[in-house]
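Progress report, Aim 2. The chain analyzed during this reporting quarter is listed below.
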Amino acid sequence: MTIKINYLIKRIKNIQNINILELGVQNGLSTKYFIELCETNNGLLTSVDIDDCSNVVKSDKWTFIHSSDDNFKKIDKIIPKALDLIFIDSLHEPNHVEKVFYHYYSFLKNGGTCVIDDISWLPYVKNEYRDNEFSEYINRSTFTKILEIYNNNKENFLLEFFFKDSGYAIITKKNDKPLKKSKKIQSREYGLKNLFRKIYKRKPKK
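Predicted structure tokens for the chain:
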């Protein structure tokens, strides 16, 4: 986790007066890194969590909102209207990630970054170091959902992936156009031609 958050901090460390929205606090590791940056760069961090995490840090650069992050009516009144970074690390479920991403994206500045945590399933597959069937499934599903969002919004944002540990999706806003709905990817993976290729490859050579 430390390598992951250090990678992110390096990308944003030179932004003065930075405004960060953090969805999901948990043990407060990312919160502490963000606060350190805000205190150095005269920034502000607003964190949202359904659990009471108000004692994680003490700083006049920090506002904590005790709420589910999809309580938009409450949260919209409090958060800054121009964000440099949105960090999504709350409920790791594809439809929830999609819902909060679409809502808070409009608060993101042009050139601003949205980071979605836990998109890599690779550490969780069978016999890997975090072997966990549910995490493998949910991270893979979130990864696919992000690709579907990007599939219909290529002109609106840049998309990168960082695969260390549980990974990040890194989205950089290009313009102020409203996002289009996500679009299923028309894959040929299970098409007849590919099925025949697989069958042919499995045939023993004479």
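The mean pLDDT is 94. The chain has one domain: 2-202. These observations will guide the mutagenesis work planned for the next reporting period.
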